[in-house]
Specification:
Blueprint: E1 6-9, E2 12-15, E3 27-29, H1 35-54, E4 59-60, E5 65-66, E6 69-75, H2 84-97, E7 102-108, H3 109-115, H4 120-127, E8 133-139, E9 142-145, E10 159-169, E11 178-187, H5 190-205, H6 208-214, E12 218-219, E13 230-231, H7 233-252, E14 256-257, E15 263-265, H8 266-272, H9 274-278, E16 283-287, E17 290-294, H10 299-307, E18 318-327, E19 343-352, H11 358-376, E20 382-385, H12 395-411, E21 416-419
Parallel strand pairs: 1-3, 14-18, 20-21
Antiparallel strand pairs: 1-2, 4-6, 5-6, 6-11, 7-8, 8-9, 10-11, 12-13, 15-17, 16-17, 18-19
Helix pairs in contact: 1-2, 11-12
């Protein structure tokens, strides 16, 4: 039975009558987290409801909240274009005005499979969820599988904008069917939406892809292949100036320049763990019946630099850096200018040190980062990435290294977030 709940807005509770509750939990409403996540999650369902009304044969996969707002993946026999977004948005506003209550129900896997028996995309969603209980959210004639929570009714969704249209493989699998995807943004207030759209337009003017073409810095050519940039004379001169500036700074901080080959035997990638844990992102070839892998990162080459001579603990720390060219098998759907490519150059460094030196080295890295960022006028945030599911190395080594990183950040009073499982293969 529906209960009355309150909407928490800007730190105050506002009682709203005749609103459905989601298990009695408080629903927040404002232009900050976690309120925006709930607003945008609810707006994703509003988008899907509008699509379903305009394109009755539409079937829906997932509609999550993401950093840039929200999106919904779906398929329909109609090919939707950018020009259709305004029409869909108008339908969303019409639905919102009806103030449809948003209600939650639960059902077993068997009941859910029966309810959505004619919807293969819903079966694909359920196949990715463990357990036997599913929650379903309904508003008007539209309902979908969702873990929630959502706003009590659609009338609270007033300040939103559909931003772009894209294609997306089902579940991110390039061998699966291609779905249509619509992105959108939503806020609690008109002012916040207006400010976001203004910043969006300003960002478009400064889009690096636009500037790269206008200034003659770089280009792409499909004859060469997707995600493989060509550096033009202006761009190459700019790159060299940046690399020279950074090289001087790295040398000042005790880093030595090195360079490893761009192609290595697969046996080395097996030893390093990349072959077992990163193979799907690498390119391979066979030479004289021996398999080789093109490097996706520079660490193996730097380890070989370290191993080429007998080392003493007194030699540590050793700091190596390289402007290393690497290749990664990125899916075509995620390629984006120079931000996501298949070939790029890393300003990559590795430090070989004793455990007792980790904290000191990290403090030096933080100082170096701060100075370089200030030179370029960049603002930034820190995240501490922890042990990933796919990793090599013993757990106690990961713990010791992670704690040293944390201590260094705390000693410098640097705010940081935790990126759970975001670490690389080895600590």
């Amino acid at each position: 039975m529906a209960e009355q709940i309150g909407i928490k807005k800007e730190g105050e509770i506002y009682d709203l009558q005749s609103l459905a509750t989601q298990e009695g939990e408080a629903i927040y409403f404002g232009d900050n987290d976690p309120a925006l996540e709930i607003i945008r999650h609810s707006c994703a369902h509003l988008l899907a409801q509008a699509i379903k009304q305009l394109y009755p044969d539409a079937q829906f996969f997932v509609g999550p909240v993401v950093q840039e707002g929200f999106y919904y993946d779906f398929k329909t026999s109609t090919k939707i274009s950018e020009e259709d977004l305004e029409r869909i948005e108008e339908r969303m506003r019409a639905i919102a005005k009806n103030k449809h209550p948003i209600t939650k129900s639960t059902m077993t896997r068997k009941e859910a499979l029966e309810k959505f028996k004619d919807d293969p995309l819903k079966h694909a969603v359920m196949s990715r969820i463990e357990g036997d209980s599913f929650s379903v959210y309904a508003q008007g004639e539209f309902e979908d599988l969702c873990r929630g929570p959502h706003l009590p009714h659609t009338g609270l969704l007033q300040h939103f904008k559909l931003t772009k249209l894209a294609g997306a493989y089902l579940g991110g699998d390039e061998n699966a069917e291609m779905l249509q995807r619509i992105y959108g943004i939503a806020f609690a207030s008109k002012e916040a939406l207006k400010e976001y759209l203004f910043q969006l337009e300003e960002a478009k003017k400064r889009d690096h892809r636009k500037l790269g073409q206008e200034l003659g810095l770089f280009c792409f050519d499909e004859d060469l292949g997707a995600g493989l940039p060509i550096w033009l004379p202006n761009g190459m001169r700019l790159r060299q100036r940046i690399e020279n500036l950074l090289s001087k700074a790295l040398l000042k901080y005790g880093y030595e320049p090195v360079r490893g080959p761009e192609i290595l035997k697969s046996s080395l990638w097996q030893t390093s763990g990349h072959y077992q844990n990163y193979k799907e992102n690498m390119y391979f070839t066979t030479i004289d019946e021996v398999e080789y892998g093109i490097k996706p990162m520079n660490c193996v080459g730097h380890i070989k630099v370290y191993e080429h001579a007998l080392r003493s603990y007194k030699d540590l720390p050793l700091r190596f850096y390289e402007y290393g060219v690497v290749h990664r098998h990125e899916k075509s759907g995620v390629l984006h200018g120079l931000l996501r490519v298949r070939e790029f150059t890393q300003d990559d460094a590795h430090i070989f040190c004793r455990f007792s030196q980790i904290k000191t080295e990290v403090l030096a890295i933080l100082e170096f980062t701060k100075k370089v960022m200030e030179v370029f006028g960049f603002s930034y945030e820190m995240e501490l990435s922890t042990k990933p599911e796919k990793h090599i190395g013993e757990a106690h080594i990961w713990e010791q290294a992670t704690n040293a990183l944390k201590e260094a950040l705390e000693e410098q009073n640097i705010p940081f977030g935790i990126d759970e499982g975001g670490g690389v293969l080895q600590p």
